[in-house]
Amino acid sequence: MADISGINSEGDNAFMAKSLLGTDVEPMYSGANSFMRRKYTRDLRDADVAISGIPYDCATTGRSGTRLGPQAVRKASANLAWAPHFPSGLDVFETLAVADYGDLVFDPGEPMTIPDAIESHAKTILDTNTAMVTLGGDHFVTYPILKAHAEKHGQLALIQIDAHSDTWEEDQQRIDHGTMFYHAAKQGIIDPASSAQVGIRTHNDKTHGFNIIHAPWVHEKGPEAVVTEIKRIVGDRKAYLTFDIDSLDPAFAPGTGTPVTGGLTPHQALTILRGLEGINIVGADVVEVSPAYDVSDITALAGATMAFEMLYLMALQKKKKEA
């Protein structure tokens, strides 16, 4: 149950906050739905991390609707915004200055311009030396975001938590949420040998050099073994973390476009994310939340929780650098 004894009488911290640091408690059922009640601003001079939404779903191969994902995840995050991180007890927002940058606006009637628009959007944020945690949108949005991160940081390791490999081959490059990591690897944006795909439970004839940790292996060996394997694979390389909500079993996350039975439990996913402490994560996203197929917002809440865990990891990185 939320402790609302310290409610901010002004409310609407998304607009009224005087700083990007700190937590002002307000009712979870009212007010402007910024992510975790962070301040909406495009001024990133004091920001460590910008939350950004990419409401795009035209790359889906099945059920659409993830364009509504950022909005749903923000709304669900109000359920989490009143308390420090569990189980660490760390008040993430006393350490990490986080702004909600809002959503990318684009013209859906000009589909071939959208990948460049997403990449430009990411570059604009990264050029201020602000890290990104992005809310999708379908999983294709990760590809142009990765391009912008690789331009800034060099070739990256990819930590992908997903039901699908998203490395299916194609003769020409299309806007598709099932092929983009095939192209990212071919183009040298990510290094497959230093990348881990976790929770995979759909068949692909080729690995393209990626290290695949299938969902049955996670269930058999446990999340702690997964963390050990990810750290072995990634080492000290700069890494980008992408979490497709369909990595969770549809019992826990029905609100997604391509659900696959046999997936991770929220406990497994959270244990894996928390175990990534020490990996040099330079950017992250949560994608494929599709509210039209959700039940009581449980998928949106799962997405918000995973994004909060990403901020927790970034807060730990900052504390380590400052120590």
Automatic annotation (TrEMBL):
CDD domains, alphabetized: Agmatinase_PAH (cd11592)
GO biological processes: putrescine biosynthetic process from arginine, via agmatine
Annotated keywords: Hydrolase, Manganese, Metal-binding
EC number(s) reported in the record: 3.5.3.11
Regions that span the bilayer: none
EC category name: hydrolase
Pfam families the record matches: Arginase
Cofactor dependency: Mn(2+)
Source domain of life: Bacteria
GO molecular function, a single term: agmatinase activity
UniProt xrefs under InterPro entries: Agmatinase-rel, Ureohydrolase, Ureohydrolase_dom_sf, Ureohydrolase_Mn_BS
Cofactor note: Binds 2 manganese ions per subunit.
Residues annotated as binding Mn(2+): H139, D162, H164, D166, D244, D246
Protein family according to the UniProt entry: Belongs to the arginase family. Agmatinase subfamily.
Protein name: Agmatinase
Organism: Kiloniella litopenaei
